[in-house]
Amino acid sequence: MLRAFGPQGWWPARTRLEVILGAILVQNTAWQNAALAIRNLKDNGLLSLVKLKRASLDELEFHVKSAGFYRQKARTIRNFVDWLEHSCGGSLNVMFARPAAELRRQLLGIKGLGPETADAILLYAGRHPVFVADAYTRRILARHGLVRDCAGYSEVQGFLHQRLPPDAALFNEFHALLVEVGKRYCKRQVALCEECPLEEFLPKKHERQPLLAGAAAPQPVSEGA
DNA sequence: TGCCAGGCCGGGT
DNA sequence: ACCCGGCATGGC
């Protein structure tokens, strides 16, 4: 994928706060629409924790409207800012100084932040080696028979964590490339992705082992595989 | 026109 | 522990 598409330069954000806002705003939404919302916040001087704290909910809703689900996302932003204030004295430095596992639990406690959003924050703003097993990642792995079709977020994330060295830069680039490939070759209603450049690196279909088929336990994998 | 997009929550089995 | 409907805008 890297050879086919080159480095993706993700996450497309300038600051940690932009990563966090983008992670919330992009939930089940095309990035373009989330980027528009970020631009609106920026153009209206709201792209700082102090300003976000002062903004009314109506104001937030108005500016993030282009991202869709704007009432929920405005509340989620508000929930995060409130939590940061109470739990971290309003400091992202304090927040990101916490151990990844603890911080993840706390983020999941914020209404509107689920596993993918929390992990995107941990990886792309905190540089923690946590794989973001988003819809494209799950779809591509399932289409190639690496995980079950119905595999959920944590199952796919576990699959990747078992087989990859815990390297944030690797997770970053790999995930970004999976999304790029997914956008081109692995949409929802396309059953096959014969054009997918991943095919080149995988065993032929008849040679593939059922790595996580059915109720079988995950296979132990050698170190650094 | 209809489908899709880098989810998450709440209520129901 | 799943399953489902609701949430909403913008692009093709």
Structure explained in plain terms:
The structure is a single chain. With 225 residues, the chain is mainly alpha-helical. It is built from 12 helices and no strands. The chain has helices at 2-5, 16-25, 31-43, 49-54, 57-63, 70-88, 92-96, 100-108, 115-125, 135-143, 153-163, 168-185. The structure holds a DNA duplex (13 and 12 nucleotides).
> Could you spell the SSE succession in H and E letters?
HHHHHHHHHHHH
How much helix is in the residues? 40-55%
Strand content: under 5%
CATH class of the largest domain: Mainly Alpha
Which superfamily, in CATH terms, is the homologous superfamily of the largest domain? Hypothetical protein, domain 2
- Largest sheet, if any? none
Q: Which ranges are low-confidence, i.e. pLDDT below 50, for 5 or more consecutive residues?
A: 209-225
Query: Ends: how far apart?
Result: 18 Å
Structural class: mainly alpha
At CATH's second level, what is the architecture of the largest domain? Orthogonal Bundle
Overall mean pLDDT: 89
Q: How many domains, in number, for the residues?
A: 2
The value of Rg in angstroms is 19 Å
What is the overall shape? globular
What name is given to the CATH topology of the largest domain?
Endonuclease III, domain 1
Number of strands: 0
List the helices and strands and how they pair.
Layout: H1 2-5, H2 16-25, H3 31-43, H4 49-54, H5 57-63, H6 70-88, H7 92-96, H8 100-108, H9 115-125, H10 135-143, H11 153-163, H12 168-185
The protein binds a DNA duplex (13 and 12 nucleotides) through helix 2, helix 3, helix 6, helix 9 and helix 10.
